[in-house]
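Feature request, filed as a ticket because there's no other form

It would be nice if the structure record came with a short human-readable summary line next to the tokens. Right now we just get the raw output. Example of a typical job, pasted below so the devs can see what we mean:
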Amino acid sequence: MIRTVVTREPEWDDTERAKMAGLVLYESQICSCGLHESIARTDPDMEIILPVCPVCADFKKQMRVLDAEDEKKVHALGEKPPAGAPRPSDGRSVILSYKGPAASPTP
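Raw output as currently delivered:
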């Protein structure tokens, strides 16, 4: 008779649980713009009375400008443009990317 004993390690050890707890904490501090609040709110002279992310605010402003331009172009198509008529926003993808602080020139 042959006997086989299988010993399994737990899927989540203390280290993995600590990593996941850290990830949950980090993700809870991500702004809706996708940046961590330590990046989005670093100006020491800025007093934020309401938690307003300057990145999100600028992004929303740019989207309003784009939407207004699109509205003018669609309005120029006539009162009831055909559904198949191309729209300015067709295929548009808006991507927000963080490029980091500008490198300071070296003397």
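Something like this underneath would help us a lot:
Helices lie at 14-28, 37-40, 54-75.
The first helix runs from residue 14 to 28.
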